[in-house]
Specification:
The complex is a heterodimer of chains A (about 625) and B (about 140). By secondary structure, chain A is of the alpha+beta class. Chain A is about 40% helix and about 25% strand. Chain A has five domains: about 5-135, 2-Layer Sandwich (Beta-Lactamase), CATH 3.30.450; about 145-255, 2-Layer Sandwich (Beta-Lactamase), CATH 3.30.450.20; about 260-380, PAS domain (Beta-Lactamase), CATH 3.30.450.20; about 385-460, no CATH class; about 475-620, Heat Shock Protein 90. Chain A is built from 19 helices and 24 strands. The N and C termini of chain A lie far apart (about 115 Å). In chain B, strands 2-1-3-4-5 form a five-stranded parallel β-sheet, with helices on both faces. Helix content of chain B is about 40%, strand content about 15%. Chain B has a single domain (about 20-135), classed as Response regulator (Rossmann fold, 3-Layer(aba) Sandwich). Chain B has about 140 residues and is α/β, with parallel strands linked by helices. Classes of the chains: A alpha+beta (about 625), B alpha/beta (about 140).
Chain lengths: ~625, ~140
């Protein structure tokens, strides 16, 4: 029996019931213990071990008995342990497992493992003994380490507290967030992390939580604040979950500093207020979560009456059903939908009145979930303007048609009687054989001349009113080509008056070929016409300036005094009698109308003595 | 074999003054062919489809702007009628709009004259046109039945 030599023969005191226990009984008791049990004398020599000890440390009991207990401790702790052991025997007492120091055991193969020890003294006739119960806590240590690692890896500050609100465990994020060292927090009540003004209430909240512990978000709507070591406060969000431990229910609090988010939200709110439209932000359930002042104004509700209500309160009742469908569809596949796309909607004010609105929608993701931002524009005014414009366009269209009708009447019905007046007067002249020098003949001449003049006026008026009516498409026009056509037209006149028409290279522009030809024709025609005896010289040139061509028609004719420069482009404005220069005063008005239609300007440069230069601009871009 | 009858000139114009001017210009221009006058397109077609022109050679002077059926409509109908489409048609018009000119030729007009205000200008034009269609060229006969 291994116990023979080593068993204390009469153990007393320490464990009163073990007082006179027989060694056999003691051995059985030790063998039945779940932990490794080691009995040592006051010199630290092992006098008894159980099978668990053999298994735990890998020694057969024969190799342990008589050795000092330091055999089972890593070498580096041995010297210290000897001192501890001596101290213990001078004042022996029962010491619980786990209390305090972390210990390590050493197996026979030299490997180490974490242990927990409880000690109890045993007084015998032969002296003091001590019983050490040793427990391998490798697996517990491992799971603790895993838990701590998990805690450290959490993005939030994690604070674990027990039922009494004492902080048991924190992570590094907590240290950083609150500015405390770990040691300064462990064991304190959690209220140390809360501003003083809120502590009283918090104790009550905390106690209620432990009565019905559950997983809970504390962020929603609550005004929560954290307090740093330096006394400064910051907005936080907390989520709580209960945690079962050996010593009862603890609570894990994940704490998030939402300073930045609050700032961003504040910025967002400010931004919202600057929007020109009414802004209504709704959650997936259709509840209004945020509005701006414009929304209050447009719908006539104060903000407080909108927040939390479903957005349908802003829509006429008869459209509610449809809208709920649209809304959930939108959240199903949210995308940006700009204004003016799709349906025209109706809004409903607090007083029940309706008004036309236009809405643009954009989805918004935030930490709190999906939202939709609706920019709502009251388009009552625009609608009214649109209607006015439509009416105006209609009346314009009508008057245009009337004008066209007038042009038709003028071209046919006005000219037919005129022709009859003139022609029959001419026939009268011959039939009556009126003497050419008689008054009657002079009168008839006046009738005929006036008729002819009137016909010129009618024709010019017609061609003026026809500009832009031909529906001729804008196309690429080679001005060089145009100039040649005009030149050919004036060939006879030019030859007759010994005129010299020259030109520089001319550009290709976008316009109506018919109208641009008429423009060129009128300007060159004028240049040839308004001469005082000398041989006409006409020069056409072009200059590009940025996006524009400036085309110039220069003559050395009679010129135009600057005070007349504006007048000459008005219809029927003439500076000369028909006896001096024929014409109706429509040519330059036609020119201006054509140039304006092409997006250009026309003007004249002349000092009234040294000829005139007419310039007009045309955009240089080709036709797209 | 019947004697060759002179070409029949039909003037279609709603203006009595214009009709008189046209006839006067023809007469003063030495064209003494028989002339029939109608006041609109419908009267013209009725006349052409009556017995009057059957077996005769006909030339039509046709105004465009007329009530009831205008010259363009009458021209279209006439040139679409197998019995009448060879009848030469000279458009006589006040309009100088290119569109009328183009439409008239598209529909098969044989000639086109814009009536000037002055009779002094009108006379030589009508004289030449009248001579061309009644003397110079050969015009087919409007078929019998």
């Amino acid at each position: 029996m291994a116990i023979d030599d080593a068993t204390p023969d009469s153990p007393q005191a320490g464990h009163p019931e073990a007082g006179d226990a027989d060694p056999q009984w003691y051995q059985r008791l030790v063998e039945s213990a779940p932990d490794a049990v080691i009995l040592m004398d006051s010199e630290g020599r092992i006098v008894l071990v159980n099978a668990q000890t053999e298994r735990l440390f890998g020694y057969p009991r024969s190799e342990l008995l008589g050795k000092t207990v330091e055999t089972l401790i890593p070498e580096r702790y041995r010297r210290g342990h000897t001192v501890h052991r001596d101290t213990y025997f001078t004042e022996p007492k029962v010491r619980d497992m786990g209390a305090g120091v972390e210990l390590a055991g050493r197996r026979r193969d030299g490997s180490e493992f974490p242990i927990e020890i409880s000690l109890s003294p045993l007084k015998t006739a032969r002296g003091m003994y001590a019983t050490a119960s040793v427990r391998d806590i490798s697996s517990r240590r491992k799971s603790q380490q895993q838990f701590r690692a998990l805690l450290e890896s959490a993005p939030d500050a994690m604070v674990i507290l027990d039922e009494r609100g004492k902080i048991q465990l924190i992570n590094a994020q907590t240290e950083r967030m609150f500015g405390y060292q770990r040691e300064a927090l462990i064991g304190k009540t959690v209220e140390v992390l809360i501003p003083e003004r809120l502590r009283g209430n918090h104790v009550g909240h905390r106690e209620r939580y432990f009565q019905v512990p559950n997983v809970r978000e504390m962020g929603a709507g609550l005004d929560l604040w954290g307090r740093r070591k330096d006394g400064s406060e910051f907005p936080i969000e907390i989520s709580l979950s209960p945690m079962e431990t050996e010593t009862g229910t603890w609570a894990t609090a994940a704490v998030r500093d939402v300073t930045e988010r609050m700032k961003a939200e504040a910025r967002f709110r400010a931004l919202l207020e600057t929007a020109p439209d009414a802004m209504v932000i709704i959650g997936t359930e259709g509840r209004i979560v945020l509005v701006n002042a414009q929304a209050e104004r447009v719908f006539g509700y104060p903000r407080a009456e909108l927040i939390g209500k479903t957005v349908e309160m802003l829509i006429p009742e008869r459209l509610h059903g449809r809208h709920v469908g649209h809304r959930s569809q939108y959240f199903h596949s949210p995308k940006v939908r700009p204004m003016g796309m799709g349906l025209e909607l109706r809004g409903r004010r607090k007083d029940g009145s309706e008004f036309p609105i236009e809405i643009s929608l954009s989805p918004m993701e935030s930490a709190d979930g999906h939202f939709a931002t609706a920019a709502v524009r009251d388009i009552t005014d625009r609608k009214a303007v649109e209607e006015r414009l439509a009416k105006y366009a209609e009346s314009l269209h009508q008057s245009n048609q009337e004008l066209e009708q007038f042009a038709y009447v003028a071209s046919h019905d006005l000219q037919a009687p005129l022709r009859n007046v003139v022609s029959f007067t001419q026939l009268l002249q011959t039939e009556l054989e009126i003497a050419p020098d008689s008054d009657a003949h002079t009168y008839m001449e006046h009738i005929v001349n006036s008729g002819a003049q009137m016909q010129v006026l009618i024709k010019d008026l017609l061609s003026f009113s026809r500009i832009g009516k031909q529906d001729e498409a804008m196309t690429t026009v080679d001005c060089e080509d145009l100039f040649r056509q005009v030149e050919t037209q004036f060939l006879a006149v030019a030859r007759e008056r010994e005129a010299e028409i020259t030109h520089e290279p001319l550009p290709t522009v976008c316009g109506s070929p018919h109208e641009l030809k008429q423009l060129m024709q009128n300007l060159v025609g004028n240049a040839l016409k308004f001469q005082r005896g000398q041989k006409p010289k006409v020069h056409v040139s072009a200059l590009r300036q940025g996006e524009e061509w400036t085309i110039s028609v220069q003559d050395q004719g009679i010129g135009i005094k600057p005070e007349h420069h504006a007048r000459i482009f008005q219809i029927f404005q003439r500076l000369h009698t028909t006896r001096e220069y024929d014409g109706s005063g429509v040519g330059l008005a036609i020119c201006q109308k054509i140039v304006t239609r092409h997006g250009g300007r026309i003007w004249v440069e002349s000092d009234g003595e040294h000829g005139s230069t007419f310039r007009f601009t045309l955009r240089s871009q080709g036709c797209s | 074999m019947p004697a060759i009858q002179p070409i029949l000139i039909i003037i279609a114009d709603d203006s009595p003054g214009d009709r008189l001017l046209a006839v006067t210009a023809l007469r003063k221009g030495g064209i003494d062919n028989p002339v029939l006058e109608v006041e609109d397109g419908q009267q013209l077609l009725d006349l052409l489809r009556s017995d009057a022109p059957k077996g005769r050679r006909v030339v039509v002077f046709l105004d465009i702007n007329m009530p009831r059926m205008n010259g363009i409509e009458a021209l279209a109908e006439l040139k679409g009628d197998p019995a009448l489409r060879r009848v030469p048609v000279v458009m006589l018009t006040t309009s100088e709009a290119d569109i009328d000119l183009i439409r008239a030729y598209d529909l098969g007009a044989n000639s086109y004259l814009s009536k000037p205000v002055s009779f002094a200008e009108f006379l030589p034009k009508m004289q030449q046109l009248g001579a061309y269609w009644t003397r110079l060229v050969t015009v087919p006969v409007v078929p019998d039945g």
